[in-house]
């Protein structure tokens, strides 16, 4: 299997010993990544230097790294309870470390929430937040699809009624080492972070985690994520599928992947973002005309394009969701929402930061607290579409969804990337419905079962902005059927 994909060497993220707001703010990290000059530094890379050109050569050694019986135990990782959690929690929780490189002392932190309903028969799902450099615990688990949300006091938790562990057993993985509570005892590891090693370590994590939780061996397994997860998710899937073909063994029963508001193609993302802002009245016709005149949205864009883009004035809006309220910090240091949006609090990053930096919370999570590193990002494909096309061809279930109010990885950009797959439409674009008789969004299916969906009224973090709609879509993905075109749901 050959995938000729270019690199970019970009982004330095500072992560301190405590979880910072930067580690939670997925959209900001991604915007920094996209604006850090990757397009000027990238270029064609020879197959000899490209780990994705021949994945079986690049990743064929990974089964050997999994032969040593991993340290730790399921019971040692059990979370008896989290500080401030609500009463009558009816599901098992686990958290801790899985070593992915014994020689370097590199270990990834995870939080695992089993389903409260029939966990033994439900699938296993791995969730990966993006960034690169964003905490899957702080963002994914505590702000989006996890079983709890942190309350404004920063001390207590409330139950998320639309948590994804209602329909699956969900692992939240802090990846790569240096993100969140994950760490390495070899500090030089942090200078070698990038897509290929992130995928390698995630694979080793899964193999070793399954040794700790053997009841999940052979269970239907899915990978989900968002944002820069548009890289992480298909790359990990590629490693799993390639090693299955290379070794003839199938230790991980991967059935499908689903990724929301993903970064799929760097240049198309830039074009799609600007076009989205113009379509939604954020930038003027004159500025857009200037941009389209001077920007090719490729590596040859120069000074005139940069000047046209610099003339954009978006104002103080949330690029996660251009219609959402923003978090305002007052002169006395307190924060509050600029307006009211049911079910959403733009200041939740602040509450999560306080909660996860509480020593008692870290103790309950079995978290190590002295992680400190810089993460230079060393490799990243400019486009993920050849890889996604290959995964579709293998028969893997592949779904992509987009909240339609996001400017960071907008639906406009995703549509351009989906078009590059050149797949035949089998079920045309049409609305899909929730049990509330609402249009949850729009959906289309293609050859090979590839599915693209929108989530109406949502921004970058779909499970945060539209928790009920995201759960309906995720449940449909697990069942392998697109949600209904008319309201057929029953109480």
UniProtKB/TrEMBL annotation:
Q: Provide the E.C. number(s) assigned to this enzyme.
A: 3.4.16.-
EC top class named in words: hydrolase
PROSITE patterns named in the record? CARBOXYPEPT_SER_HIS (PS00560), CARBOXYPEPT_SER_SER (PS00131)
Keywords tagged on the record: Carboxypeptidase, Disulfide bond, Glycoprotein, Hydrolase, Protease, Signal
Q: Where are the annotated segments for Disordered?
A: 39-61
Q: Which GO terms describe its cellular component?
A: vacuole
A Gene Ontology molecular function term for this protein is: serine-type carboxypeptidase activity
Q: According to the UniProt entry, where is the signal peptide?
A: 1-22
User: One GO BP annotation here?
Assistant: proteolysis
Task: State if Signal is listed as a keyword.
Answer: yes
Query: Family per UniProt?
Result: Belongs to the peptidase S10 family.
Name under which the protein is recorded? Carboxypeptidase
């Amino acid at each position: 299997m050959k995938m000729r994909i270019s690199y970019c060497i970009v982004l330095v993220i500072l992560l301190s010993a405590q979880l910072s707001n930067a580690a939670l703010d997925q959209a900001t990290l991604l915007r920094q990544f996209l604006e850090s000059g990757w397009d000027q530094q990238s270029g064609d890379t020879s197959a000899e230097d490209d780990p994705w050109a021949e994945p079986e050569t690049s990743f064929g050694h990974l089964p050997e790294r999994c032969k040593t019986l991993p340290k730790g135990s399921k019971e040692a990782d059990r979370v008896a309870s989290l500080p401030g959690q609500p009463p009558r929690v009816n599901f098992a929780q686990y958290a801790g470390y899985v070593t992915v490189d014994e020689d370097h002392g590199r270990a990834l932190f995870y939080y695992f929430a089993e389903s409260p309903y029939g966990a033994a028969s439900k699938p296993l799902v791995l969730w990966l937040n993006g960034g690169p450099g964003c905490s899957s615990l702080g963002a994914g688990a505590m702000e989006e699809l996890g079983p709890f949300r942190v309350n404004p006091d920063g001390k207590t938790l409330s139950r998320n009624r639309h948590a994804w562990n209602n329909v699956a057993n969900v692992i939240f993985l802090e990846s790569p080492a240096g993100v969140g509570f994950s760490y390495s005892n070899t500090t030089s590891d942090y200078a070698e972070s990038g897509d290929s090693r992130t995928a390698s370590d995630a694979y080793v994590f899964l193999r070793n985690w399954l040794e700790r939780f053997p009841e999940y061996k052979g269970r239907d397994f899915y990978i989900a994520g968002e944002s820069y997860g548009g890289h992480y998710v298909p790359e990990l899937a590629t490693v799993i599928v390639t090693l299955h073909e290379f070794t003839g063994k199938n230790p991980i029963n991967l059935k499908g992947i689903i990724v929301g508001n993903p970064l799929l193609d760097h240049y198309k993302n830039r074009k799609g973002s600007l076009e989205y802002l113009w379509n939604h009245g954020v930038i003027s016709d004159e500025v857009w005309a200037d941009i389209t005149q001077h920007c090719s949205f490729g590596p040859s864009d120069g000074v005139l394009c940069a000047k046209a883009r610099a003339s954009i004035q978006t104002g103080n809006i949330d690029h996660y969701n251009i219609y959402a309220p923003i978090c305002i910090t007052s002169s006395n240091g307190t924060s509050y929402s600029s307006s009211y949006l049911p079910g959403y609090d733009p200041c939740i990053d602040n509450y999560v930061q306080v909660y996860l930096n509480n020593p008692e919370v870290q103790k309950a999570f079995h978290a190590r607290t002295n992680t400190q590193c810089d993460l230079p990002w060393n490799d990243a494909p400019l486009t993920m579409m050849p890889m996604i096309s290959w995964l579709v061809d293998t028969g893997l279930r592949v779904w992509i969804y987009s909240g339609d109010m996001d400017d960071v990885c907008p639906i406009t950009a995703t549509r351009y990337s989906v078009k590059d797959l050149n797949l035949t439409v089998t079920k045309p674009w049409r609305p899909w419905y929730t049990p509330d008789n609402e249009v949850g969004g729009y959906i289309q299916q293609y050859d090979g079962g590839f599915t693209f969906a929108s989530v109406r009224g949502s921004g970058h973090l779909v499970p945060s902005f539209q928790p009920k709609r995201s759960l309906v879509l995720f449940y449909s993905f697990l069942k392998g059927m697109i949600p209904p075109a008319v309201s057929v749901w029953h109480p």
